[in-house]
Write a structure and sequence with these properties.
By secondary structure, the chain is mainly beta. It contains two helices and 24 strands. The protein has one domain: Outer membrane protein transport protein (OMPP1/FadL/TodX) (Porin). The strands form four sheets. It has a 14-stranded antiparallel β-barrel with strand order 1-2-3-7-8-9-10-13-14-17-18-20-21-24. A three-stranded mixed beta sheet has the order 19-22-23, with no helix packed on it. The protein has a two-stranded antiparallel ribbon with strand order 5-6.
Length: 374
């Protein structure tokens, strides 16, 4: 079952391409698959998630906003033994908006909402002492920003935190990643282990109470995005067929965002998680002919603890996914994929008190990617 380089690369590209909806604020999964492609390679993609998160108990039809995030990568084989690469993604984020007519999560025509945005730029250099081994490392540049508004009876009403807003101004900080990969090209076997460090941010913060009447500017809020480990594996299992798997661990245990004045007023965190995230995806990729290939996968995510914050009231998921790839020529391809997420039921809490249960949640994810070898 010998696979030539182009054939192996085409099958490799059928690995999962639709977005993650994972524990904590995890979004992209922080893959470095593009850097492990043979030769010189570039790609650009976009992922879209359409979730529905609801609570019959609290009369919430849907509080999760649709969102999209782009990704891009370029990798160059500078010499026989040295490769360099640059990867862009948006690894963490949140976007939700409660109905403005729900008294539990709205007041004065305004609703509870959250928006968190991150950007990552990872620079890598790899050393390949032999055809089989690749050792790589590099710095990671990251930005974080966010806004949150709390409204309604779930937060104690206007006299407590039901009229609270926070603006976390964009902050930039640096981390690092390191890992290694082993491959046997003849059988399309490749495995990689990648560690990413935590990244600590100190964000300039403005907090307001009483629908903006009381302002508390010029504070700092610490946010530490989690360290993580990704394990990727693939191997040829039959003619024209690959099996693949990904396992990810992210250190969300003890993660907390604790604004100074919110904590002074209530003794609570704005966001916190109690468990680490474990997730896994397994599947198969199949080459049908010289132009078409496809993949199917199933996935699981443990979540980051339950009860959870009202700003993201789901607990883990199960998924099924399908992907297709069209390769008009050997040096470029177009991919598309879809995933269905069964989102786990969760008890939502504020200030350590459970306010209600969110059940029967789901999401649809879509992905599109273009890859080019040069």
């Amino acid at each position: 079952m010998k696979l030539n380089k182009i054939y192996s690369a085409i099958l490799l590209s059928t690995l999962p391409l639709t977005p993650a909806l994972a524990a904590g604020l995890d979004r992209s999964g922080q893959s470095i698959a593009a850097f492990l492609q043979p030769g010189n390679y570039a790609e650009a993609g976009i992922s879209i998630l359409d979730p529905k998160v609801q609570s019959n108990q609290l009369k919430v039809n849907d509080m999760a906003e649709d969102y999209y995030f782009p990704s891009a990568a370029i990798k160059a084989q500078a010499t026989e033994h040295i490769s360099i690469g640059l990867l862009y993604d948006q690894p963490f984020g949140a976007e939700s908006l409660y109905p403005s007519t729900n008294l539990f999560f709205a007041a004065n025509g305004e609703a509870t909402q959250v928006e968190v945005e991150t950007h990552n730029l990872s620079a890598l250099i790899g050393y390949q002492p032999t055809e089989n081994w690749n050792f790589y490392a590099g710095p990671v540049y990251q930005t974080v920003q966010g806004t949150v508004s709390l409204r309604g009876l779930a937060y104690g009403g206007a006299s407590k935190l039901g009229s609270y807003d926070i603006n976390l101004k964009e902050d930039e900080a640096y981390g690092w990643l390191a890992g290694f990969a082993y491959q046997i090209p003849e059988i399309a076997l490749k495995t990689a282990v990648t560690y990413r460090s935590e990244i600590k941010h100190e964000l300039d913060t403005t907090e307001t109470f009483g629908f903006g009447a009381i302002q508390r500017p010029n504070a700092l809020t610490e946010v530490v995005t989690p360290q993580s480990v990704n394990i990727d594996f693939q191997t040829g299992v039959a003619a024209n067929t690959l099996a693949f798997a990904n396992i990810r661990w992210a250190h969300w245990d003890q993660f907390a965002v604790t604004p100074k004045f919110l904590n002074a007023a209530s003794g609570n965190n704005l966001i916190d998680y109690s468990d680490d995230q474990w997730s896994a995806t397994v599947g198969v990729g199949r080459k049908f002919n010289s132009h078409w290939s496809g993949s199917a996968s199933v996935g699981y995510d443990s979540g980051a603890g339950n009860p959870v914050t009202t700003l993201g009231p789901t607990e883990g998921y199960w998924t099924v996914g399908l992907g297709g790839q069209y390769s008009p020529a050997e040096n470029y391809f177009i991919q598309a994929g879809v995933k269905y997420f069964w989102l786990g039921d969760a008890h939502a809490q504020t200030g350590g008190n459970i306010v209600g249960e969110f059940t029967d949640n789901y999401a649809l994810g879509y992905g599109l990617k273009i890859g080019y070898r040069f």
